[in-house]
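Notebook entry, structure prediction.
Reason for the run: the old model in the group folder had no record of what sequence produced it. Starting over properly, with the input documented here first.
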Amino acid sequence: MDMDLAAHPVYDTYEKDGGRYAVGICSEITARKQAESALQVSEERYRRLFDRNLAGVLRVACDGRIVDCNQALADTLGYSSREELLGLSTTDLDFNPEAGNYSPITSGSRLPAPTTT
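New structure, fully documented this time:
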């Protein structure tokens, strides 16, 4: 059982049956610890799924700024690392629907159109 003990300066103590006592607060926190552990496991599972996904995955802020992405997205767009994409706006990336390819504006190179079978 996990316990949380709050220690505060005691200004008043009392004696009973020859012993001196002070009042304190102790809370049982097992449920909180279990919830924290479950959250940590869930976050680790999400991070592995995000990072190991073969498809390009990104999270975008309301203003269009890329706040997170995986390496697969960087590879797909022709960047050498995901860190190069972080902080860019999605409008900084150019997609040419006629050619079917992406162009990282910062590098100027174009990737070939995906092949279909």
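Summary: The radius of gyration is 27 Å.
The old model has been moved to the deprecated folder.
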